[in-house]
Amino acid sequence: MSETLQRIVSLVGDRKLRVSAHALQKLIADGILIEPLIEGISEAILVEDYHDYFKGPAVLVLQFDTQGMPIHLVWGLPAGAQEPAVLVTAYRPDPDRWTDHFSRRIVR
């Protein structure tokens, strides 16, 4: 697990988190409930680590909803700050753009 993901898991576990307006819109549009994702953050699978992102370190993780459907979430930490963990976006991955396990992008 990356250092960024470890920090995010800890912060989310302590309820030191914020959901961006964009993420909230995406969650609503895709019918995704946030609470199961928060409760299951410790089981998140790291897909990509953006530790040098200019807005602050971030990670793309794979989680599953209560029906076992995949969800990608981007969590970040504000640049220069230790908290909160920020849910930047969430979406259901397009199977045409990801491998069968939704853990790697398909390069065309």
TrEMBL record:
Pfam families according to UniProt:
DUF4258
Top-rank taxon: Bacteria
Q: Could you tell me what this protein is called? A: DUF4258 domain-containing protein
Which organism encodes this protein? Answer: Rhizobium rosettiformans
Its ancestry begins with: Bacteria, Pseudomonadati, Pseudomonadota, Alphaproteobacteria, Hyphomicrobiales
